[in-house]
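User: Okay, second chain of the day. Same drill as before: sequence in, structure tokens out.
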Amino acid sequence: MQARLAEIFGNTLERWNSKLLECNGEADHVHLLFEAHPNLELSGLVNNLKTVSSRLIRKEFQQEISKVYWKPVFWHKSYCLI
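Assistant: Same drill. Structure tokens below.
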């Protein structure tokens, strides 16, 4: 699932003219390192990353997710940019 998330994030970032440099995480969170143009609206990018990845991961890994995850949202609304 983590490898698929990295693929989804990479493809989504390419559509925003950005580049995924690194993707890793734990069972309950992910870390992304990416390059983006300074004029890019980062909040819009992050929201798009969450929306696209949530939709695809829920669809592709429905059986695995339903065993441990029952909330109506996939990602927490917060994020941190450094």
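Residues 35 and 71 are 31 Å apart (CA to CA).

User: Thanks, on to the next one.
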